[in-house]
Amino acid sequence: MDLGPVRLYYERTAATGEPVVLLHGSWTDHHTWDALVPPLAPALEVVVVDRRGHGSSYGPPREHPVRDDAHDLAELLSAIDLFPVHLVAHSYAGAVALRLAFDRPEMVRSLSLHEPPFVGLLRQDPAGRPEADRLIGETERLADLVRAGEAERAARALAAGISMREDAWDRLPGTARGALLKHADRWAEELGDPEAISPDPAGLEDLWLPVLLSSGGRSPPFLRRINELLGASLRNALLRELPDCGHLPQVSCPARYAGLLGTFLLERNVPVS
Length: 273
Hints:
The chain is α/β, with parallel strands linked by helices. Helices cover 44% and strands 15% of the residues. It has helices spanning 37-40, 65-79, 93-103, 129-147, 151-163, 168-171, 174-182, 184-191, 201-206, 221-232, 249-252, 254-268; strands spanning 2-3, 6-7, 10-12, 19-23, 45-49, 85-90, 108-114, 211-216, 237-242.
């Protein structure tokens, strides 16, 4: 879909139910959802999209990645006349989904966010400030490695930290490692946006939409603490844990993740009148 200087690639299943848009994180593209679309499609109209600079989408460099990605998505939904939608967002894309809900609430019915990396929230608790500073410093160090042409070193360290397995990178198939490295520059760009690590407090306070905050039992504990802090800042949040899953439930346990999303999307939300 051509949207002025931006071209966004998207795919859309048959209209069998309410529309849900799946937003991928920083290191991937729409293919991260390949295993999740089939269990969702029988009950929902599912849209996957490559954000700008990912997969088959392109456009000018983003000055403010979170806000630019939210604007791109709003333009796409307007162009295909598909809103309001349920947004399911992984990692960094949680910031994009929230930004769209803040700016264009008429376009969003609900949010389902899996482990958004809002490490800035940890600074709300004096006891959590040292960990927040350490995580932000490590992110900046890895981003510098990417910019210096050492993306694999950064990816290896990040994979080990998120999965809590030192051999996580080596266990990935070669095709998966290649896909991650392809988007390393985008990760460095996106996590350099302050709004990617600290959501707008005023926006959180004013948000009335239902929000599902999910985390993986095999993910680092700080991601669950971020969800707890984020949930405490929202008026209508539901926190759930997927015990045997990690940071990528759409890949590692798609059936269980689809079940959690289905329960939230189809039972908790009030249909549009």
